[in-house]
Amino acid sequence: EERFYKAKHDAQHACEELRAKIQRSSIHEAVRKELLSAVASAESRINEVSPTRSHPGAQLRDLTKEISHLQVAETWLAAADRVLGRLGSNGPRSPRARLEQEVDTVMWHVRAGEWDGRLTAAVTGLQLVVQDAEAHAANVTHR
């Protein structure tokens, strides 16, 4: 029972940290709302887990992993937002379009509650596009 409450506390703490990070982030307001909604959903799922359920510790560990996937997603969504800002509206369209597409894909998984390997794969795609767009943004800002 002690391990259950520790796991529940850890999951709740991860949600609190993520909420604070999202609120401090400079990400686009629509993305912020979606991510905060996902955190609220995770907290609700955490609160539903009770010691009388089957394998409650495993459920809480899985939720904590999903929250960590959301944390990584927030990091790369914020990076994408910064790069989009650096590219500007007059910057190259191709990197902008690819970034927006990858952000949409990540957000689709967030909205769908798919915070597992599918979100991780989408975030990996976003990470690669952000890194590529960084090079284009550097060219735009140095002209």
Brief sketch in words of this structure:
The chain has five helices and no strands. With 143 residues, the protein is mainly alpha-helical.
Explain what you see.
With 143 residues, the chain is mainly α. Helix content is 84%, strand content 0%. It has five helices and no strands. The chain has helices at residues 2-24, 29-48, 56-87, 93-112, 117-141. Helix 1 (2-24) runs parallel beside helix 3 (56-87), helix 2 (29-48) packs antiparallel against helix 3 (56-87) and helix 3 packs antiparallel against helix 4. The mean pLDDT is 91.
Rg over C-alpha atoms, rounded to the nearest angstrom:
17 Å
Oligomer classification: single chain
Mean pLDDT: 91
What is the SS-derived class?
mainly alpha
Number of strands: 0
Instruction: Give the end-to-end Cα distance, rounded to a whole number of Å.
Output: 62 Å
Q: pLDDT below 50 for ≥5 consecutive residues: which ranges? A: none
Following the backbone from N to C, one meets helices and strands in this order, namely: HHHHH
- Approximately what portion of the residues adopt beta-strand conformation? under 5%
Q: Helix proportion of residues, in percent?
A: over 70%
Shape: elongated
What is the number of helical segments per DSSP (H or I, 4+ residues)?
5
Largest sheet: none
